[in-house]
Amino acid sequence: MIDFDVVIVGGGMVGLATACALSHTSMNIAIIENKTDIYQLLSDDQITVRASAINSASQQYFQQMGIWDILEKSGRVLAFNTIDVREKHSDTLLNAENSNYQYHNLGYIIENQVIQNILYQHAITKPNIHFLHHKVNNIFFSTDRGFISLDNDKQISAKLIIAADGASSLIRQKQGMTLLQRPYLHHAIITTIKTEHAHQSCARQIFYDDGIIAFLPLWQPHMSCLVWSAKPKEASSLLAMDNDSFNRKLTDMTNNVLGTCQVVNERLMYPLVARFCPEPVQNRLILIGDAAHTIHPLAGQGFNLGLEDSKLLTDILSKHYAAGKDIGIKSLYCYYQLTRNKDTLAMLSAMQVIQDTFDGSSSFKKRLRRIGINLINSTPLIKKQLVKYALGL
After folding, report:
1. Hey, CA dihedral for 369, 342, 17, 101, is it positive or negative?
2. CA 113 and chain centroid, separation
3. Which of 108, 128, 342, 131 is nearest to 225 (CA)?
4. Would you say the pTM of this structure is higher than 0.90?
């Protein structure tokens, strides 16, 4: 049996970031990830389907662990300067520009695979990070260790196990940890779109009665990541359309804001569910990222929430390790659980309010959201606070 200080289950972006952030310590760290294609070679003109909005707090975290300059040198990071939110067939508008708030930008859009590639390349250079490409068969605990049995019939142990294994977390399920769930009654269609007009580094969202269309501008001036949130029946219909029909539908639904739209990648669909684990900390075990919570993608904050988990956890964990404490004891992470639960619940509540406000075509709701959004747009102090919150400042 091999003994580690920390075992991270899940080699996705949040799991890799957590390992990289801990690598400056003398901890012996293992990452368990069954997939062997964590790193994927990308050609210069190949754009991958999934992308994430990175706020200022996440950018600083990447800077701290030493990968931000590498990300920028990839040429695949787009700093966006403008946010444009509007309602179809309405004068309701919310617009924000970085120049109004003395920020360099309002965030960054980066393909997930680019982030994952650079985190992985960083991690494999660290002698205290070890990759185990196996499935987890079982997990159990003693008073001073957590144990994981793998599909090669071997066992490993650690003082602390960190589960970053996604929304369907096997670790969370095996431990029977409480999970509160509420379907958003929306499915997301994700793909890459080429638009007739350049996006001009503007992140756009268009609300309509039954859904939300978001364009995340990518590093190529006419390319955007599309996240189309719609009722399940409509989403299934969108997925089933041929490309020409889908292009016409999207161009019409966005009022030609970027001219003719052309889908250039496969379309993916997945149901949107709000998830919240109220007690992500146990003795010898902590859930982070999507294993602990998922939110609606309409504000692009899901990945940032996961990185906030990782940042706070690694800060606390490193301090306790340096002080010679037993890093697996639950009581050391009371502040972590309280702080992350508070922030997650605030974000979940905000997403629910926004979705409920924009969902439906009743005249009352239309009037309410028109008054509310136009009020925010015309009140600089309120808008500045919202921008500051979105940046994680």
Report:
1. positive
2. 13
3. 108
4. yes
DSSP state, 215?
Answer: E
3-state DSSP call for residue 320?
helix
φ, ψ (nearest 5 deg) of residue 33 = -145, 115
Q: In whole angstroms, what is the distance from residue 136 CA to residue 152 CA?
A: 9
Could you give the CA distance from residue 235 to residue 241 in angstroms, rounded to a whole number? 10
**90-132, pLDDT tens digit by residue?**
655 667 677 666 678 889 999 999 999 999 999 999 999 999 9
Q: How far is CA 83 from the centre of its chain?
A: 18
Closest among 96, 70, 131 to 380, alpha carbons compared: 96
Averaged pLDDT, 313-337: 98
Say if residues 14 and 164 touch (Cβ distance below 8 Å).
yes
Closest CA to 43 of 16, 67, 12, 74: 74
H-state helical runs in 66-209: 68-73, 112-123, 170-174
CATH 3.40.190.10 fits 79-108+184-272+358-390, yes or no: no
Residues constituting the chain: 393
Query: What separation in angstroms does the CA of 113 have from each of 57, 144, 233, 269?
Result: 20, 37, 30, 18
> Where in the chain are the domains?
2-68+112-181+274-350, 79-108+184-272+358-390
Of residues 312, 289, 347, 318, the one with CA closest to residue 14:
289
3-state secondary structure of 377: helix
Token pair 């269609």 is found at 189
For 20-34, give the DSSP string: HHHTTSS--EEEE-S
**H or E element at residue 268:** strand 268-276
DSSP 3-state assignment of 149?
A: strand
Q: What is the DSSP string of 296-311?
A: -GGGS-HHHHHHHHHH
Q: For domain 2-68+112-181+274-350, give its CATH number from 3.20.20.80, 3.50.50.60, 2.20.28.90, 3.30.70.100.
A: 3.50.50.60
Q: Is 225 helix (H, G, I), strand (E, B) or coil?
A: strand
